[in-house]
Amino acid sequence: MRCEQARPLFDAYLDGELSPALATELGAHRVRCSECRRALALMQVSGHVIKSDPDEATVQSGFTDRLLACMDEPEPRWTHRFRRAIYVGAPLAAAAVIAAAFLGYFDRGDAMVAGHKVEGVQVTAVDEAPTPEPKAAQAPMDDAAARRLEEWLNKTQSNVDTKQKSVQSLQESLDLTIGQWLDILNARKARPEGETHYPGSEELAKPDGEKPASEESDDVEDL
Amino acid sequence: MTDKEGSISRQDEAQLIGRARSGEREALRQLVDLHNDRLFAFIWRMIRNHHDAEEICQDAFLKAFASLDTFSCDYRFSTWLFTIGYRVCLNRMRRKRPVTSDLEWSALPIEVDNDTAASLESEDATRLKEQVWAAVERLTVPQRATVLLFYRQSMGCHEIARILELPVATVKSHLHRARNRLREMLESLRDQDLEQFRNLSTRTG
């Protein structure tokens, strides 16, 4: 047996778990090899000291009585209070924290909602009357921009006036009596083809180059 | 070392635990008296502090008695108690810095067998003993626990595995490494001292 074969067997040898044949082989190697002999001797000696050292600490006398007295002792009053504080106080504290967080969230939410409301009103106002005041208030405007804005306002105002007139004339035409409509039909029969005339239709006729109403909103956006 | 647990059979132990479960004070006292010395010795060797060791022992007994209903009589009560004690000890060691011995060897209440004492009272033997225990103290916690339970408490690897809550193979590995580390740490021993002590240990058994 060589050293590298002998060393893995040391533990089993020390624990008496080695088969008799292997124990004999290891014993023979131990006689021949001083290194393995010394290693085994150190392990045996250390194990023996640990096992048989008579110096042992023991519990102080009265340990059992003290232990049993501990079991009989009611918990100190402060412990009861502390536990009660933990059992009752902890859920209450948790609830308070949750409530505070909840309310804090909604407080912030209100502010945010209020902020949105303000913004919403402003947006609505812009939609209803497309005045550029908010933008003008936000940034100083130079003279050229002011002129362009004034021109656009005048143009928009004239468009609105024209539109209002057209609506008014349509309203008037709808207000015609049945008798008047019959007169119009008779007059149409009497006239030659292509000269039909409806009352108020002259107001409905659009001026040359004027954009349809649907395009006016584009002008607002272009601004 | 006394082996008070060896004086009680498994059947008697089961009866004792049954009485302790019903709250019989005398049964609790007997259980404590049977196991306190062994548990205390193990814990003290682990942490080397008398006061802490006693507190840990007390905690271990109180925890064991508080959950006595969960104890299975398939195992020895000592195994279960050592498991609890080791856990409490580990928790204590994690909370505190490693402590050095607060105890004078000469001040220890020692149970001494007269024959062994006579054989180990030489100066060389005392020096060797100190070297070995100093080396044991430098082992890792699981290695130290394994060595103490194996040599000091004469437990097998299976029982140690239950106490340390480790696989048996791991326990064997701890034991193997601990032996090798002890050998390395004791390399400075002179051959002459070694031979002398081997002769002494052969005579004392």
- Classify the fold: give the CATH topology of the largest domain in chain B: Rna Polymerase Sigma Factor, Chain: A
Q: What is the H/E string of chain A?
A: HHHHHHHHHHH
Oligomer category: heterodimer
Which percent range describes the beta-strand content of chain A? under 5%
> Strand fraction band of chain B?
under 5%
Question: What is the percent of helical residues of chain B?
Answer: over 70%
Give the number of domains of chain B: 2
- The number of helical runs of chain B is 10
Give, in order, the helices and strands of chain B: HHHHHHHHHH
- Number of self-contained structural domains of chain A: 3
Q: Care to count the β-strands of chain B?
A: 0
CATH class of the largest domain in chain B: Mainly Alpha
Number of strands of chain A: 0
Helix content of chain A: over 70%
Question: Could you explain how this protein is built, in words?
Answer:
The complex is a heterodimer of chains A (223) and B (205). By secondary structure, chain A is mainly alpha-helical. Chain A folds into 3 domains: 3-52, no CATH class; 79-128; 135-222, no CATH class. In chain A, 75% of the residues lie in helices and 0% in strands. Chain A has 11 helices and no strands. Chain A has helices at residues 3-6, 10-14, 20-32, 34-52, 63-72, 77-128, 133-138, 143-174, 178-190, 201-204, 213-222. Chain A is elongated, with a radius of gyration of 54 Å. With 205 residues, chain B is mainly α. Chain B has 2 domains: 5-95, RNA polymerase sigma factor, region 2, helix turn helix motif (Rna Polymerase Sigma Factor, Chain: A, Orthogonal Bundle), CATH 1.10.1740.10; 115-204, Arc Repressor Mutant, subunit A (Orthogonal Bundle). Chain B has 10 helices and no strands. Chain B has helices at 10-21, 25-47, 50-66, 77-95, 114-119, 123-137, 141-152, 157-164, 168-185, 191-204. Chain B is elongated. Chains A and B meet through α2, α4 and α5 of A and α2, α3, α6, α7 and α9 of B.
